[in-house]
Write a sequence for this structure.
């Protein structure tokens, strides 16, 4: 059942004891929206607990209330379970924790809302933009605490105001939150923090950089040894997709022996076609696939496929 | 002579033939403010030429009118020479090009304005924020062309809304400019573009990364061979200053044989003190100095100085 904003606000107003949750592998918007709404609802005098069934990355330790996020362990009663920034299928054990009715708040167009009350606004850059609107609808003034959390979710989900989802609404919401004491440099410095291990891994990954298709394609190639060393490759492809003249950027890594994973980004070439031809998928500009073969063969195979796709695009 | 905004607008309104210029080694704010003001003044029916005495980085090729920026070569007459984003001592030969009276528009607090008409607002994150205000004062509606140029200067001077100089005013100005057709992702993608050579150089520089002082300091060490290979080290220190737990980040490179340049960034330790002790200077959080000695000796010397400064800070 799809709600309108006033109905979502009404559901929050009518509950006294609330459990808030968001998706596993939580990002800035998952953490910011649960903590932001927690502050808003507590400012209304409500009893609120936040559960996320995963570790919270240390980058978020600057957010007020982050130490109050709990891991779900035992059953509890509540008037309302508010599921933020995801459908309820990605909230881990939190769903089993309470029988409370669900209010789902999200900005992902893929959320179908079947069998539950859903407030969805896919035009918003972040679920935190919706929490910002709900606070205004509920007439709860922002505090530095709520503003910091809501701002962080907005800023991280729109790449610090650099992605296509950044709208005038996004900028004006951020402006208002800054007036409640958010310091953008404090948030951005915390978010850009990386461990030494990650920077060292990025350095090793960059050493494998190769360009092909006359400089219009670039790849990072993490063989079995290097892949085993590197915990996460998040953000690695961003370092090379920015190279002038590059259309397709590739990251190839080994998941296990003879199982290689290719991630592709593009500025024009339809990389989802390439991914689909190997049983993978994605979008025109971001796609991935798995190649069940030794690394050297996977490397030759995916480079060949990208070359052929780019030749085709140029002819077509 | 310091002007107020209406007086600066009046000076622009009273001139019919204008030359606009900005500093050498032009950045997004220099280019954005001259081109942005060019569009605004042309929309008023004025005759405007833009001169910058330097190459324009290819990142800015997306800006409307960038192809009309000229290098100063011959004398010309004008009613007004508008110097943007700098005092007139950094505009190269453009100053010799015309005898027109100067109107100086800047946001750098260091601009003393001696002997010329200056509109200075050091509270603004970018000279482009002032151009935005001038367009409104002159009642010239923005166009997509002027908005893209002005937005670019604002976004680049505040690190895409992530530096401490980002204010609610900044966000709201950007919001308004987006309503005239600025696509933030188009601008950010153009700005983050790097050449293959630069990314390759970053990769080699990262390979030299060493941590010291128990992980609280990190350095990149470009010896004579590597320094000769690398054209620009802009942004290199940013890759390592974001490491968790790091207070001081260092980049050491060779300018020539036995002449080494150290650049330092810090989150707490006063690096200007370290720089000053070697005859350099800067601010608490960003400073640099030259060490006239072989690379290996320079490396040992600066690491020792940083270690001692950090020990002192911890004791003090």
């Amino acid at each position: 059942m799809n709600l309108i904003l006033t109905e979502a606000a009404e559901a929050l107003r009518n509950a006294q004891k609330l459990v808030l949750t968001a998706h596993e592998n939580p990002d800035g918007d998952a953490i910011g929206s649960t903590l932001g709404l927690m502050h808003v609802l507590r400012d209304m005098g409500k009893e609120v607990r936040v559960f996320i069934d995963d570790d919270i990355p240390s980058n978020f330790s600057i957010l007020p209330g982050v130490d109050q996020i709990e891991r779900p362990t035992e059953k509890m009663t509540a008037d309302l379970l508010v599921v933020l920034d995801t459908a309820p299928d990605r909230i881990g054990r939190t769903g089993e924790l309470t029988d409370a009715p669900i209010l789902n708040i999200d900005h992902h167009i893929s959320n179908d809302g079947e069998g539950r009350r859903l407030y969805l606004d896919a035009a918003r850059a972040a679920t935190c933009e919706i929490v910002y609107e709900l606070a205004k609808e509920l007439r709860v003034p922002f505090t530095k605490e709520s503003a910091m959390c809501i701002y962080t979710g907005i800023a991280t989900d729109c790449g610090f105001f650099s992605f296509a989802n950044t709208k005038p609404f996004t900028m004006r919401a951020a402006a208002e939150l800054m007036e409640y004491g958010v310091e953008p440099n404090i948030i951005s410095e915390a978010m850009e923090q990386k461990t030494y291990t990650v920077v060292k891994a990025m350095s090793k990954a960059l050493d494998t950089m190769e360009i092909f298709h006359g400089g219009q394609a670039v790849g990072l190639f993490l063989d079995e040894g290097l892949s085993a060393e590197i915990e996460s490759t998040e953000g690695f492809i961003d370092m090379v997709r920015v190279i002038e003249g590059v259309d397709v950027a590739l990251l190839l890594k080994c998941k296990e022996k003879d199982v290689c994973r290719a991630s592709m980004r593009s500025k024009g070439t339809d990389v989802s076609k390439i991914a689909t031809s190997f049983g993978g998928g994605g979008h025109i500009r971001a796609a991935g696939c798995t190649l069940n073969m030794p690394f050297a063969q996977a490397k030759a195979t995916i480079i060949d496929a990208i070359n052929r796709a780019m030749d085709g695009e140029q002819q077509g």
